[in-house]
Design brief:
Deoxyribonuclease I, Chain A, 320 residues, alpha+beta, seven-stranded mixed beta sheet, six-stranded mixed beta sheet
Length: 320
């Protein structure tokens, strides 16, 4: 495995066309087509804001069977689009990591949240935590603890058929809490929340406990701007490499001018591909700023994907 191409992408529950109110069949199909027509195909795809199954995910896109999940629908559409692009339908295997659900009357799921990781068939799984994703949520106010949306870290250790292994951690941090002084005094806010910093610390404790080597990725929607306390904790104190910054020679100020997400007129760099120091980052070809009309993912979510390519060093063998 001389090179590895990875992606992180917040798909907004495949409901961007309805402002997040409901996912649609067309949105699933369009994102599947954008994934299938990338050249070359991405090896590992990390997705945020993927539903399990709920009213929001099915009201405009009914299930084909009672137990079908949103990820299953994506994979079915992706298979069709891969065939249309001249690729095998089963090029990817998918793993889902449920995070949270809001219920009505204890039975009806209004909406659900989760993460997903897709990997090319060249990889086999050494270990994963899909059955019990790691909770990194910071819960401060006891009166509303049960209402707080759970934040998780998904972990998969992949072994390529060449023998190379890599740990992949996918996450989605909370927004800054409005119950703190920083929320009202810091104009940039995103990444300045004390709750976010605690979740980042929880995240890195899990990463350090679970990674099998210094070949690892920590990716996702961090809701944190470059230069924020959360960002600086991750790249300075925790020692992660900002792959996009490294590969494109952008400093913090330049990173902030390359938006990965948008809300109304706001443009923000919130998504990151971070890694251990042994991965050698080569390029981010295929990555376009949010709002740019020349990318395959334009208009499909309130985020755009980061797509990076790195060289993975060979597994170190113990001395004989």
């Amino acid at each position: 495995m001389p090179h590895l191409r990875v992606m992180t992408y917040n798909v907004r529950y495949f409901g961007h066309a309805t402002r997040g109110l409901a996912s649609t069949r067309a949105a699933v199909r369009r994102i599947a087509r954008a994934l299938a027509t990338l050249d070359p195909l991405v090896d590992i795809v990390c997705l945020q804001e993927v539903e399990t199954a709920s009213l929001r995910s099915t009201v405009a896109h009914p299930k084909s069977h009672a137990e079908e999940t949103q990820l299953e629908r994506l994979m079915a559409a992706l298979g069709d689009e891969l065939v249309a692009a001249g690729q095998p339908a089963d090029a990817y295997e998918a793993y889902y990591f449920p995070a949270h659900q809001y219920r009505l009357g204890g039975e009806v799921q209004i909406y659900t949240t989760g993460l997903a990781i897709l990997a090319r068939r060249e990889f086999v799984i050494d270990r994963h935590n899909a059955g019990e994703p790691h909770d990194i949520t910071h819960r401060r106010l006891h009166a509303v603890r049960r209402l707080k949306q759970t934040r998780i870290c998904a972990h998969v250790r992949f072994v390529h058929r060449s023998g190379h292994s890599i740990d992949v951690f996918n996450t989605h941090l909370s927004l800054p809490s409005a119950m703190t002084r920083a929320f009202w005094t810091q104009p940039r806010r995103l990444g300045w929340g004390p709750n976010q910093l605690e979740e980042a610390r929880n995240l890195m404790r899990f990463v350090e406990a679970e990674r099998g080597s210094d070949r690892y990725l920590v990716v996702g929607d961090f809701n944190a701007l470059p230069g924020s306390p959360v960002y600086r904790y991750l790249v300075e104190e925790a020692g992660l490499v900002d792959a996009f910054s490294h590969a494109t020679a952008r400093d913090e100020e330049a990173l902030r001018t390359f938006p990965t997400a948008g809300f109304m007129r706001l443009r923000m760099h919130l998504d990151h591909v971070l890694s251990g120091p042994r991965l050698e980052w080569l390029d981010f070809d295929g990555t376009h700023p949010f709002g740019g009309r020349d990318g395959a993912f334009h208009g499909l979510s309130d985020h755009v994907p980061l797509i990076g390519r790195c060289r993975v060093p060979a597994t170190r063998r113990p001395p004989a």
